């Protein structure tokens, strides 16, 4: 069964700030990739995708994982692929970590979706709309409050 997990970001958490949120996304991507999953990071736009690609290069050597932007990298891909709504993920990805505010029409290609419920009112409403879309498409849904320092 397909699953969608929404991580709730509280206003007083480190993840409510851009730097803390990016660190948490890196943590999640590394966590799932180390378990053998092929991850797709769906960023808001190309600039954010390029920023995440650069952030993966800056992690300590012992936690480094191969990654690439969509259309780059080896033929069979790396554990982590990074893109944005205007490009398509490789077909061999199991998990998408969605940071974009789009309508999730892409999500049915993945067995697991990771999404976020931000603090900002408009972004929170968009997350609710994505939640409804996942529910209508038969995803098993769960929410988790972020408990990451």
UniProtKB/TrEMBL annotation:
This protein's record includes keyword Phosphoprotein: no
Gene Ontology biological process: DNA replication; positive regulation of DNA-templated DNA replication initiation
Enzymatic class: transferase
GO MF annotations in UniProt: DNA binding; DNA-directed DNA polymerase activity
Entries under Pfam families matching the protein: DNA_pol3_chi (PF04364)
Nucleotidyltransferase is among the record's keywords: yes
InterPro entries cross-referenced by the UniProt entry: DNA_pol3_chi, PolIII_chi_sf
Keywords: Nucleotidyltransferase, Transferase
Enzyme Commission numbers on file: 2.7.7.7
UniProt cross-references to PANTHER family, sorted A to Z: DNA POLYMERASE III SUBUNIT CHI
Protein name: DNA polymerase III subunit chi
Species annotation: Vibrio ruber (strain DSM 16370 / JCM 11486 / BCRC 17186 / CECT 7878 / LMG 23124 / VR1)
Lineage, highest ranks first: Bacteria, Pseudomonadati, Pseudomonadota, Gammaproteobacteria, Vibrionales
Gene: holC
């Amino acid at each position: 069964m397909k699953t969608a997990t929404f991580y709730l970001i509280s206003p007083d958490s480190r993840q409510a700030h851009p730097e803390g949120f990016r660190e948490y996304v890196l943590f999640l991507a590394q966590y799932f990739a180390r378990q053998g999953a092929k991850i797709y990071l769906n960023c808001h736009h190309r600039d954010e995708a390029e920023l995440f690609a650069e952030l993966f290069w800056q992690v300590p050597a012992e936690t480094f994982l191969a990654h690439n932007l969509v259309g780059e990298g080896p033929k069979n891909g790396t554990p982590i692929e990074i893109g944005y709504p205007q490009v398509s993920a490789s077909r061999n990805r199991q998990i998408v970590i969605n940071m974009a505010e789009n309508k999730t029409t892409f999500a049915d290609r993945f067995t697991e979706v990771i999404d976020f419920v931000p603090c900002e009112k408009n972004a929170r409403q968009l997350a609710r709309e994505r939640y409804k879309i996942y529910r209508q498409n038969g995803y098993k849904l769960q929410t988790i409050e972020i408990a990451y320092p």
